[in-house]
Design goal:
CATH superfamily: Endonuclease/exonuclease/phosphatase
Number of domains: 1
Number of strands: 14
Helix content: 10-25%
Largest sheet: 6 strands, mixed
Number of helices: 7
CATH architecture: 4-Layer Sandwich
CATH class: Alpha Beta
Order of helices and strands: EEEHEHEEEEEHEHEHEEHEH
Strand order of the largest sheet: 5-6-4-2-14-13
Low-confidence stretches: 1-20, 33-38, 205-211
Length: about 280
């Protein structure tokens, strides 16, 4: 048995907006380990959430326990511990165990579903979990993505994510199973913005595309503001995860005024009716 651990320490985020004005998203793929059995240290994953304090957590390749074990699954235990809502969908089965994508949210989960990806075989880790959450009076779509290692199918899967990604605003978090400079990312960037690139443009530092293991990916639709983006690196996370922990702080802009709303008045208000008939 191989124990996959995820260590985390102090993670400082710059440019944080006031409470309620921004959304903090974290993403990390759990190392698949060797063999069918992988034991993930829940205490250390809980430490990640406690340290980073994200509003949304996207985890990929999450092991789901045996149905008869009597123990709560890892995502369920984390959701209970932090009072977060949970959406989880399997992407592969290995023996009596399953692996999948899990999204934890401090916001209400309105709906969730797994988006079938092209060429997704039973032994594939690839998958896209689409979750809709309610933030104040608005809805936000979260795409929790883990694409295949096969380069040809990866592009086709990225195209499927674009086709089924839902309406803006959207946050896409996860990993592409390959270089961030490959054709799959280029395809996704036809719709989304890379938070790492925008954060780098503010600080004058280059984005961490060449880091090994590579950072997780967080993309957003153009109608959102990128406030900060960070990657956490340590020997422990490199050994435990396919992709390094990535965290981004993003903001939702006010929706534009609908043209249809212009010229609509509250005729139950006598001040409005007086103005409409020429009164003061």
């Amino acid at each position: 048995m191989r124990t996959a651990t995820l260590m985390c320490g102090a993670l400082l985020l710059a440019g944080i907006a006031a409470a309620g004005e921004s959304i903090r998203v974290a993403t990390c793929a759990i190392h698949p380990g060797e063999g069918e059995e992988v034991q993930v240290d829940r205490t250390l994953l809980a430490s990640l959430i406690e340290t980073v304090r994200p509003d949304i957590v996207c985890l990929q390749h999450v092991p789901r326990g045996d149905a008869g074990s009597g123990k709560p699954e890892l995502p369920t235990a984390l959701a209970r511990e932090f009072g977060m809502n949970l959406a989880i969908e399997p992407t592969e089965a290995a023996g009596s165990r399953q692996h999948g994508n899990a999204t934890l949210s401090r916001f209400e989960i309105v709906s969730h579903e797994n988006i079938p990806l092209p060429g997704q075989d039973g032994d594939e880790r690839a998958g896209c979990l689409r979750v809709t959450v309610r933030v104040a009076e608005r809805t936000l779509t979260i795409l929790n993505v883990h694409l295949t290692l096969d380069p040809d199918r990866r592009v086709a899967q990225a195209a499927s994510v674009l086709e089924n990604g839902g309406e803006d605003p959207v946050v896409l978090a996860g990993n592409l199973g390959a270089s961030r400079k490959g054709p799959a990312l280029k395809l996704l960037l036809s719709r989304f913005l890379d938070t790492a690139d925008f954060a780098a443009s503010r600080t004058g530092e280059g984005a961490s595309h060449a880091v090994e293991p590579r950072p997780g990916l967080i993309l957003v639709s153009p109608g959102m503001d990128v406030l900060s983006s960070r990657v956490f690196r340590s020997p422990e996370t490199a050994a435990a995860s396919d992709f390094l922990l990535a965290v981004a702080e993003v903001g939702l802009r006010e929706p534009p005024e609908n043209v249809e709303d212009k010229g609509v008045y509250d005729t139950d208000d006598e001040r409005v009716t007086e103005a409409l008939v020429g009164g003061e």
